[in-house]
Write a structure and sequence with these properties.
The chain is α/β, with parallel strands linked by helices. The chain has a single domain, classed as 4-Layer Sandwich (Purple Acid Phosphatase, chain A, domain 2). The protein has 9 helices and 14 strands. It has a 7-stranded mixed β-sheet with strand order 1-6-7-8-9-11-10. Strand 6 and strand 7 form a beta hairpin. The chain starts with a helix and ends with a strand. The relative contact order is 0.18.
């Protein structure tokens, strides 16, 4: 199983003692797009010169056919494709709004020269993958991409009745709780592959996991900001699945994943450490979706407050101590002209 993930179109390696990763999430790209989304992607990649770019779900939410979808992806991926920078993606709950399923989308993503994502066969979700990072011909770091699936109303093949109705009782722990959860076979896939990776490397390989919808344990950070060393802010309630997948405890038992990064909650930018695992949000990079001041307004003339937290997250790893990495939010307002502009057509 491990050999499938070691064979990549582009080898990820530490350069000059470091490895830098940009995470963009919730671009919510459509055939008509706010050009500030594209400007932000270009400016961030140009300035940071990352070794890897990750898209954390809700990437493209429009496209009636494969040709239109590929045109939208091409516009978003252009900063990496032009520079030869490897990139990969996971799916969010809105990605299937493109009118065709994720398996087809995954094939289109993989058709790009610099896209290095894969899709683990035989388990739930699409696009589950592991990306190894090498140092002196040894694997020093691993990135785990997981499909957090979409909704309880659709991802419920194991349940004999109406799962969403059974789960969403009158009083629940989180708002908008009808989201699916990461399935057991996905967790087992991570566990088994992690064990294989440890055998190959001669020790546990530090890892970062990224997926769209956060885990319930993310709530422990804003509940305990001092104890978790919280940075950034919580600007909206969390939206995990009501059902706890058990992934977090699996990560604790394996002991190799050092950080988990999610999107979905567009205006949350916080990060903190719970039980030694860093849990962080990546905000949202797309100017065509909800932001701070107005919910779900996708018109062409939005106010500055709404877009104040359009951002990406930058992770920087040093080869002398990969487990202790740097993490920061990159704000669009620091890089591009935020003046409202008319939408443009990509298709």
């Amino acid at each position: 199983m491990l050999s499938y993930y070691l064979d990549s179109k582009k080898k990820l390696e530490f350069k000059n003692g470091s490895f830098r990763v940009l995470i963009f999430t919730d671009m919510h790209a459509k055939r008509r797009i706010d050009p500030r989304t594209l400007a932000f992607l270009e400016a961030t990649v140009k300035r940071e010169q990352p070794d890897l770019v990750l898209w954390d779900g809700d990437n493209v939410v429009d496209g009636p056919d494969e040709e239109s979808f590929k045109s939208i992806v091409s516009a978003l991926a252009e900063p990496m494709e032009r520079r030869g920078i490897p990139w990969a993606q996971v799916f969010g709950n809105h990605d299937e709004e493109c009118c065709f399923d994720r398996k087809i989308q995954q094939k289109i993503y993989e058709s790009f020269d610099c896209n290095i994502s894969k899709s683990a066969p035989g388990i739930h979700g699409v696009g589950n993958h592991m990306l190894p990072v090498w140092k002196d011909e040894q694997i020093a770091l691993a990135f785990w991409g997981i499909d957090s699936n979409d909704y309880l109303s659709t991802d419920n093949d194991f349940y004999p009745g109406d799962l969403e109705k059974a789960v969403l009782l009158p009083k629940v722990m989180f708002r908008d709780c009808g989201y699916a959860f990461i399935r057991f076979d996905q967790i087992r896939w991570y566990w088994d592959l992690s064990v294989e990776l440890e055998r190959l490397a001669g020790g546990k390989v530090p890892g970062i996991m990224y997926f769209h919808t956060c885990l319930n344990e993310f709530a422990m950070v804003p509940y305990n900001p001092k104890e978790t060393g919280m940075t950034g802010k919580q600007n909206e309630p969390l939206c995990p699945s009501t059902l706890n997948s058990g992934l977090f405890t699996a990560l604790l038992e394996r002991g190799d994943v050092k950080g988990v990064y999610c999107g979905h909650d567009h205006t949350n930018t916080y990060e903190g450490a719970y039980c030694g695992v860093r849990l962080g949000f990546c905000g949202s990079a797309g100017f065509g979706t909800y932001g701070l001041s107005s919910h779900y307004d996708s018109g062409p003339h939005q106010d500055a407050d709404k877009h104040a937290l359009r951002c990406a997250r930058l992770l920087t790893f040093r080869e002398e101590n990969v487990s202790e990495y740097e993490s920061e939010i990159i704000l669009a307002r620091d890089l591009i002209d935020m003046t409202p502009v008319e939408y443009i057509d990509l298709v």
